[in-house]
Amino acid sequence: MNIQRLPFLLASFLFVACGSAVVVEGGNENAHHGGGGSGQGSMPVISQGPAVALTRAQNDILWEEYWSTHDPSGSVSAGGGGNLNPNDLFLRLSDLGASCQSPTTELSCGGHWQLTLVLPPSLQQVGVYDLEDPELVAYSSMTETGQLNSPAPDDCPWGGGSPGPGTLEIISIDDTEVRFNVQFASGGFWEADPSGEYTAPRCPSDP
């Protein structure tokens, strides 16, 4: 997979290819994978539930705002060139909650996860889709943290890469919310399993 599609820090770690996923392991001084530390004046992020839905255009704005208050050194750009569709739909979900105020959920150590599924307009309709469909997997990603290695709060392994085998069912979709069911296949890449049904409210035009 193209590592540059992952909007979180991947530098200075051991990369282990596992199928189509890229897993990053080892102690991590930046277990909160969104960046190298919060900046002055950054606002607390309020979770709006386990999942939110927003367009690529909205997500790009949130990343610009995020890096204005976080240290981007060592980060990998979330951009992918001028051919990306601003109407792609991002379904972001995490066991720690998701917010329209931030492009990422900063994961602490302890077995937490974040899943981002990116749907092109052609898949933004009721139906069942393969998580390894090239249209769906192109920009989708999964991240998880492991258990602590020491008393240091950020000393834990973590990994990031493509979600792996499974299905996404869009149950209903309209201008206010997306109801969907994710099912990860057994024996996949991840310790965490985000399988379940979710309702993702759409973020307002001005998140």
Question: Explain this structure to me?
Answer:
- With 207 residues, the chain is mostly beta strands.
- It has one domain.
- The chain is built from two helices and eleven strands.
- The chain has helices spanning 56-67, 134-137; strands at residues 14-18, 21-25, 51-55, 89-94, 113-119, 127-130, 141-145, 158-161, 166-173, 177-184, 196-201.
- The chain has a five-stranded antiparallel β-sheet.
- Strand 1 (14-18) and strand 2 form a beta hairpin.
- The radius of gyration is 16 Å and the shape is globular.
- The two termini are 30 Å apart.
- Mean pLDDT is 77; it is low at 1-44 and 74-81.
Q: How far is it from the N-terminal to the C-terminal residue, by CA? A: 30 Å
Overall geometry: globular
- Stretches where pLDDT is under 50 for at least 5 consecutive residues are 1-44, 74-81
Order of helices and strands: EEEHEEEHEEEEE
Radius of gyration: 16 Å
Q: Can you summarize the main beta sheet?
A: 5 strands, antiparallel
Give the helix/strand class: mainly beta
Mean pLDDT across the residues is 77
Report the sheet-strand fraction: 25-35%
Q: What's the number of helices?
A: 2
Strand order of the largest sheet: 3-4-5-7-8
Q: Count structural domains.
A: 1
Number of strands: 11
User: Considering DSSP H and I runs of 4 or more, what fraction of the residues is helical?
Assistant: under 10%
Oligomeric nature of the chains: single chain
